[in-house]
Amino acid sequence: MSQHACVFCAIIQGSLPAHIIMQNDAVIVIKDIAPKAPVHYLIIPKKHVTDITSLEQQDAQMAGQLLLMAQQLASHLSGSQAFRLVVNNGADAGQKVFHLHLHFLSGQVMTDF
Ligand code: AMP
Ligand code: ZN
């Protein structure tokens, strides 16, 4: 999918509304529209990259910033700072939006999987 038809690019550009939690130069965090946990955020690079498979060496810093954003989000959680990160990489893994994103899940005790 081109970035012109990408729902997350539209949110980043401001042409589609979203509940924005936090952002910096490289990363935006929004509330997931269909939450699977009491806290369900999406950590999204502002650069359109399809998935982890498509990352290049030059994306190393951006990829690190995704994890550091998770750390920052956790520091703002009330109660437990435990969280789970999930990346669905590819359609067979359940990916539906083909712009790289980390699911940040928290606010409940997570079951094993
Ligand atoms: P994935 O299956 O890993 O591609 O996850 C895509 C996620 O994006 C799902 O959890 C959706 O609920 C979420 N999502 C899709 N469209 C929007 C939107 N406009 N705003 C917020 N979250 C969205
Ligand atoms: Zn995109």
SSE inventory with pairings:
Elements lengths: L6 H7 L6 E4 L3 E5 L7 E7 L14 H16 L7 E4 L15 E5 L7
Antiparallel strand pairs: 1-2, 2-3, 3-5, 4-5
This protein binds adenosine monophosphate (AMP) and zinc ion.
**What is the count of helical runs?**
2
Number of domains: 1
Q: Span from first to last CA?
A: 30 Å
CATH class: Alpha Beta
Order of helices and strands: HEEEHEE
Radius of gyration: 14 Å
Structure description:
- This protein has 113 residues and is an alpha+beta fold.
- It has a single domain, classed as HIT-like (HIT family, subunit A), CATH 3.30.428.
- It contains 2 helices and 5 strands.
- The chain has a 5-stranded antiparallel beta sheet, with helices on one face.
- A hairpin with a 3-residue loop joins strand 1 (20-23) and strand 2 (27-31).
- The structure holds adenosine monophosphate and zinc ion.
- Adenosine monophosphate is lined by residues 7, 18, 30, 32-34, 42, 88, 94-97.
Quick take:
The protein is α+β, with helices and mostly antiparallel strands and 113 residues long.
Salient structural properties:
single chain; 113 residues; alpha+beta; HIT family, subunit A; five-stranded antiparallel β-sheet; 2 helices; binds adenosine monophosphate; binds zinc ion
